[in-house]
Amino acid sequence: MARSRFLPDNYTFAILGTVVLASVLPASGAVAQGFEWLTVGAVSLLFFLHGAKLSREAVLSGLGHWRLHLLVVASTFVLFPLLGWALRPVLEPLVTPDLYLGVLFLCALPATVQSAIAFTAMARGNMPAAVCSASASTLMGIFITPVLVGLLLQRHAAGGDPLLAIGKIMLQLLLPFVMGHLMRPWIGDVVKRRASVLKLVDQGSILLVVYTAFSAAVIQGLWKDMPLPSLLGLLLVCAVILALALVSTTWLARRLGFSKEDEITIVFCGSKKSLASGVPMAKVLFASSAVGAIVLPLMLFHQMQLMVCAVLAQRYAARAQAQLPAGD
């Protein structure tokens, strides 16, 4: 019997199962470190394979797509802070004041890199532009986020080490991409023929990110340190902000005449917030006693965006597949 179109697909169930697994058996200690390294390796492999798949013309096109990059940056560092500030009178009563400070901190963060690009790949969006936009957002966030935190939370932010963050991004993401692209003349055709391998790496890297991120959240007391009403209120706040970001980026992309591939990139790169960048920044910008409440909204938003965007990516991919000529 055919599955109802209203039911989630197998991959969405896999993500939900990964969340449950991380809640029941979270990775900790040496095991967590092992999963972190495995995740880094999977994401680096993903970038390597996409670098080998993309043509030189596509990469140059991605670098020069300034309208798309401008819209993604505006969504990340203008739209989100405006939503957090403008909706405060409506949403703050749903949570504690400390938790809403965490929501404002969430709105000031840069976009994710690995999951945004992986979802763009799954949905058959503009991959070169996604690589450029997501990486640029993370680099810009090193300097912009502390300023936004000072404006939104009325606190003075201390500076981090931008060179360390830039070096990490270069090593884990851009270097594998460049290496794969340089090796494209020798392995490009093989990567194209092995599309199933690329899909496995795409989806597998997302599952690893979900498990490692949710394990860390559970170990830090995600389900223990919050009363149920506050948790439900925080879930609603995160859902409202995410929904508004997704609707706004989709509407703007269509209104401004972007192609479907560009729309996918704008939606997935312009609607996400980075847990990997957010937690270290919180430790620098806030007192140790406040970090727990500050990062909790980010943890919940991060899991929510992964699950919602997994559904969206599958729908985009299914639509693109349905539009292909018969036999392709």
Automatic annotation (TrEMBL):
One Pfam family per UniProt: SBF_like
Record has Ion transport as a keyword: no
Alphabetical list of Gene3D superfamilies matching this protein: 1.20.1530.20
Keyword Transmembrane helix found: yes
InterPro entries the record matches: Na+/solute_symporter_sf, Put_Na-Bile_cotransptr
Alphabetic keyword roster: Membrane, Transmembrane, Transmembrane helix
Entry superkingdom: Bacteria
Name this polypeptide is given: Bile acid:sodium symporter
Bilayer-spanning residue ranges: 12-31, 66-87, 99-122, 129-153, 165-183, 204-223, 229-253, 281-301
